[in-house]
Specification:
Order of helices and strands: HHHHEHHHEHEEEEE
Distance between the termini: 159 Å
Number of domains: 2
Oligomer: single chain
Helix content: 55-70%
Strand order of the largest sheet: 2-1-7-6-5-4-3
CATH class of the largest domain: Mainly Beta
Structural class: alpha+beta
CATH topology of the largest domain: FAS1 domain
Strand content: 15-25%
Largest sheet: 7 strands, mixed
CATH superfamily of the largest domain: FAS1 domain
Number of strands: 7
Length: about 230
């Protein structure tokens, strides 16, 4: 009986040992799996952190680029403002003279200058204005019949000369861009007579006179240079 008990005890002991082996293995496997899981989670966390870092760096770069672009735009705007100021200063320098000052100071208008003085129109065209003067050059006056200029400059022909010269003046400022819009239309001159503006072969004409230089700005108006003396029809 004792022997049987010993045998049973040994068998039970063996069985218990066998049963503990899988439990140990399972525990080890679970431990390994937990370690792997922890390592995987750690790797994923690192990847996420890296992605977040890269994203943050990208956003920072974008912000820096935007700030740089804004600075460049501000610099350009400042440059443009300074350029506009310089341009305005130059324009002011160019229009610091009145119409008479420009005519008298230009050797191409010596005949016109003499005629304005003879007709007593110097003070008028030095006035506030604004005026638009279609100014014939010396060559334009030279196209008149022989002796015509000398005859007009005589004292007794002062009124006639004044009327001819006033036919070259518009009592308002008329830039070329505005004159082009009046193609085919008549405008009233300072003499009270009408003159016709028209575009021919991409050039602007007043009656038969071609405007060869346009928009010479003066402080009291504008001058357009023409190639012939215009006469009322």
């Amino acid at each position: 009986m004792k022997r049987k008990m010993k045998i049973i005890t040994v068998v039970l002991s063996v069985l218990l040992t066998i049963c503990q082996i899988p439990l140990s293995v399972t525990a080890k496997c679970n431990s390994k799996n937990e370690n792997k899981s922890e390592q995987t989670e750690e790797k994923d966390k690192k990847k996420t952190d890296k992605k977040d870092t890269n994203k943050e760096e990208t956003n920072n770069k974008k912000m820096n680029n935007k700030q740089t672009e804004n600075k460049e735009m501000n610099n350009k705007q400042n440059d443009n403002k300074q350029s506009d100021k310089k341009s305005n200063c130059k324009k002011e320098e160019k229009i610091s003279k009145n119409i008479v000052d420009i005519v008298v100071g230009d050797q191409r208008f010596t005949t016109l200058s003499t005629a304005l003085k003879a007709a007593d129109l110097v003070d008028t065209l030095r006035g506030e204005g604004p005026f638009t003067v279609f100014a014939p050059t010396n060559d334009a006056f030279a196209k008149l019949p022989d002796g015509a200029i000398e005859e007009l400059l005589k004292e007794e022909n002062k009124e006639t000369l004044a009327k001819i010269l006033k036919y070259h003046v518009v009592p308002k400022k008329l830039l070329s861009e505005d004159a082009l819009k009046l193609d085919g239309k008549e405008i009233e001159m300072a003499s009270g007579q009408k003159a016709k503006l028209q575009v021919k072969d991409d050039a602007l004409y007043i009656n038969d006179a071609k405007i060869i230089i346009k928009d010479v700005l003066a402080e009291n108006g504008v001058i357009h240079v023409i190639d012939v003396v215009i006469m009322a029809e």
